[in-house]
Specification:
This protein is an alpha+beta fold. The protein folds into three domains: 249 residues, 3-Layer(bba) Sandwich (FAD/NAD(P)-binding domain); 84 residues, Beta Barrel (Elongation Factor Tu (Ef-tu), domain 3); 64 residues, Orthogonal Bundle (Helicase, Ruva Protein, domain 3). Helix content is 32%, strand content 25%. The strands form five sheets. Strands 1, 2, 6, 7, 8, 9 and 20 form a seven-stranded mixed beta sheet that branches. Strands 11-14-13-12-15-16 form a six-stranded antiparallel beta barrel. The longest helix has 16 residues. The radius of gyration is 25 Å and the shape is elongated. Bound molecules: flavin-adenine dinucleotide.
C-alpha cells in the first residue's frame, strides 16, 4: 500500500513526487510511467535545450526577486485566473531557486526565456532524477495504466501487468488520451483536447521564396477579436514565429471550430496609420518624382519583401513616381497596413508543443490541486485545461501545479 501513486513520469509527475517527499520524507510514493523513458518531453523540449521557465518580467538577471503573478498569468490563454493564486506560492523565482539549489546553473536569454547554462535539457532531466533518487522515490517504467477505481477509500491502479493500491492518487499524464479516460472514470469532465501553438498554412502563398525573413508586425484574424503584435516568420508554407504561435494559442478554439480556415490580416507597419503611410508615399512622390518606388525603400522593410509588394501590382509601380496616381498610392498604403492572407490549415504534429483542453478547471481546487469530485485524487501539469504561450510557460505550469500537489499531500 502506497501513500501516493503518481501516474505519469513527466515533469509534473516527477516534480509532484519530489515536492511531496521534500515536504514529508516519510511518505511512501510510487511513480508509474507507461514508457521506457522518464521526462521524455523535457529532453526534447526547447530544441534539446529545455526552456525551463520565463524571467521576462524580472529585470534583474536571475535575481530571485518578486515577479508580478498577474503579469505572469496573462501568458496562459487557458488557466489565467486559476494560476494566479498558485503563482504566489511557486512561480519562476521559486523554480529558478529550486534548480540552482539542485546544482543546475541557469541563464536568461534576451527575450526572457530561461535555459540551463549547459544548453542541454539532459541537465534538467538529470537533476530531477537525481533528486528523486536521493529522496527514495520509487519509480516503475513500462507501466501503462489501463484502469483506476476506488475501493474501500483506496485507489486500485491497474497497469498492463500489475495492480497497485494507494491512499492518494495523482494523475499527471499530460495530454495522453488514456489519462483523460482515467479521470473520466473517476467522475471528471474533459474539455475537448485540441492543438495549440502551431504555424499557419497559407493558401497560394506568394511570399514562400522569402522564407526565413522575420519582422515585427501586428496580426489580426478577420471577423474576430484576436490580434497579436510580435515577430512574424515567413516560411515556405506560410507564417510562423512567436506572434503566430501566440495568436494560434489565444485563438486555438476559434480556429479549430473554423477548421483552420480564416483570413489573416498582417499590418506590416503598425506604428503608422494607413493615412500616415499614404502621406509618406505622397511626400516621396512630390520630392522624388523622377524616381521609382523600387529605388526608395521608404519604410525600411526587408528589401526583397518591399520588391515583392511592389511586384504584386504588376506594372503599376514600375513607373516613375510622377506617373503614379493617388489611387494607386492609396492601394499600396492599404496593402502595407492590412495585407490579407487566407489561412488554410495549420502545421502538423512536429510543431505542436502543447494541448488546449483537459480536466475542466472548476472541478479542481487550485489551493491543493485536489479534485472537487473525487476525494484524494489530484492533478498537475498539462492534463489540466491549462496551456501557455511559448517561452517556458508550459513547464512553469507543470512545476507550479506539481509543487502545490506535493505540498498538499
Ligand atoms: C517538442 C516539444 C517541445 C516543448 N518545449 C517546451 C519548452 O521548451 N518549454 C515549455 O515550457 N514547454 C515546452 N513544451 C511543452 C511541455 O513539454 C509540456 O507542457 C510538459 O511536458 C507537460 O508536462 P506533464 O508532465 O504535464 O506532461 P508530459 O510531459 O506529457 O508527461 C506525461 C507523462 O505521462 C505518461 N503517461 C501517459 N499516459 C500514461 C498512462 N496511462 N500510464 C502511465 N503513464 C502515462 C507519458 O508517457 C508521459 O511520460 C514542449 C513540448 C513539446 C512536444
Amino acid at each position: 500500500m502506497y501513500d501516493l501513486i503518481v501516474i505519469g513520469g513527466g515533469p509534473a509527475g516527477i516534480f509532484a513526487a519530489i515536492s511531496a517527499k521534500e515536504k514529508n520524507p516519510d511518505i511512501k510514493i510510487l511513480v508509474l510511467e507507461k514508457s521506457q523513458k522518464l521526462l521524455h518531453k523535457v529532453l526534447i523540449s526547447g530544441g534539446g535545450r529545455c526552456n525551463v521557465t520565463n524571467g521576462l518580467l524580472n529585470p534583474m538577471d536571475l535575481d530571485p526577486m518578486e515577479l508580478d503573478p498577474k503579469d505572469l498569468a496573462r501568458n496562459y490563454p487557458r488557466g489565467q485566473k486559476e494560476l494566479l493564486g498558485p503563482f504566489h506560492q511557486f512561480g519562476p523565482k521559486e523554480t529558478i531557486e529550486w534548480f540552482e539549489k539542485n546544482n543546475v546553473k541557469l541563464k536568461k536569454e534576451e527575450d526572457g526565456r530561461i535555459f540551463p547554462q549547459s544548453n542541454s535539457s539532459a541537465t534538467i532531466v538529470d537533476s530531477l532524477l537525481l533528486r528523486a533518487k536521493l529522496l527514495n522515490i520509487e519509480i516503475l517504467k513500462n507501466q501503462d495504466i489501463e484502469k483506476v477505481y476506488k475501493e474501500n477509500e483506496n485507489f486500485k491502479v491497474i497497469s498492463n501487468d500489475k495492480i497497485f493500491i494507494s491512499k492518494k492518487l495523482a494523475i499527471t499524464t499530460g495530454s495522453c488520451a488514456k489519462g483523460f479516460d482515467l479521470a473520466k472514470d473517476l467522475g471528471h469532465t474533459i474539455k475537448n483536447p485540441i492543438p495549440s501553438l502551431f504555424g499557419f498554412n497559407i493558401s497560394k502563398f506568394t511570399l514562400k521564396d522569402l522564407s526565413g525573413i522575420a519582422l515585427l508586425v501586428e496580426l489580426k484574424i478577420k471577423g474576430s477579436t484576436f490580434s497579436q503584435k510580435g515577430d512574424l516568420l515567413i516560411t515556405h508554407f506560410g507564417f510562423s514565429g512567436p506572434a503566430i504561435l501566440t495568436l494560434s494559442s489565444i485563438a486555438a478554439r476559434y480556429l479549430f471550430d473554423k477548421n483552420y480556415k480564416a483570413e489573416l490580416i498582417v499590418n506590416w507597419l503598425f506604428d503608422l496609420s494607413e493615412d500616415e503611410i499614404f502621406k509618406k508615399l505622397k511626400n516621396l512622390k512630390n520630392k522624388n518624382f523622377l524616381k521609382t518606388l523600387y529605388s526608395e525603400n521608404l519604410f525600411h522593410l526587408p528589401k526583397n519583401l518591399w520588391i515583392k509588394f511592389l511586384n504584386s501590382f504588376d506594372e503599376t509601380f514600375k513607373k516613375e513616381l510622377k506617373d503614379i496616381p493617388k489611387k494607386d498610392l492609396l492601394i499600396l498604403a492599404s496593402k502595407l497596413s492590412s495585407d490579407r492572407y487566407a489561412i488554410n490549415g495549420k502545421t502538423t504534429n512536429k510543431k505542436e508543443f502543447v494541448t488546449c483542453g483537459g480536466i475542466t478547471l472548476k472541478e479542481v481546487n487550485f489551493k491543493t490541486m485536489e479534485s472537487k469530485i473525487c476525494e484524494n485524487l489530484f492533478f498537475a501539469g498539462e492534463i489540466l485545461d491549462i496551456d501557455g504561450v511559448t517561452g517556458g510557460f508550459n513547464f512553469q505550469n507543470a512545476w507550479t501545479t506539481a509543487y502545490l500537489l506535493g505540498q498538499s499531500i
